[in-house]
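quick one, two chains, predict together pls
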Amino acid sequence: MATKILSVDDSRTIRMIVGRTFRPYDCQVCEAGNGEEGLAAAAREKPDLIILDVTMPVMDGVTMLSKLKEDPELKAIPVIMLTAESGRENVLQIAKLGVRDYLVKPFKEEQLIEKAGRIVTLQKKPAA
Amino acid sequence: MTRHLVDVFDTMLAMPAALLPNAEPPQFFERISGSVGFAGETVTGAVYLHLTEAFANRVAAAMLGLSPEEKISENDVNDVVGEATNMLTGGLKSWLCDAGADCAVSTPAIIRGAFDVEVMPNVAREFLIFESSGERIIVEIHIKLS
């Protein structure tokens, strides 16, 4: 069964990059444009992994993560936080939220694969 | 900021960029500008990233993995320029927060046209001018410390 990944980011660019990154793997990537849509998508899709942006309109990533952790059905879903901020305080704050890992933008696609691969099974698709 | 701009262009676009330390202040030209504001108790300001439309299209194609000949929508170009500005500002925010000037950042906005950004009273303005693939990249920073 394909690994299900939810990309939550207000930037279509980042969602496209995340989708492209996992394309060679047996993954199903679904998308949401903010934390509110992300929570709804998480409840509907029950993903194996969430790639979550921090700064978003409507509901930011930190709020979405807090709500996710309050929900008994969703709290076990691992989250990789994507952040444009690499500062010490920001990293410490993210670590306290209970995320499995974080990735600072700008990032290389291989870095995302490496971090995701530590959390979920990534099986390469057979060559066509 | 220099390191962050070079990182963004190198990592996300595979486009090397270099600071032009003695470049003249920019003239107004028709362009696409991304802007992200930041605000905290002791610091406020904004970061602008100015690109020509042609270069913004190339940057968008590179980030989205498209060939330069492929048609890219205005929305996609706006989104790429906004995201690049967001990454740049994130780098500045990290530096400010680690220096004790905690602040929050806005989501990106895009402006198209030939204009000058008005400098508010007591706000310092700094230009950093870079070159990549023969094109100019202009980073404009407005910052007020209290």
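The mean pLDDT of chain A is 92.
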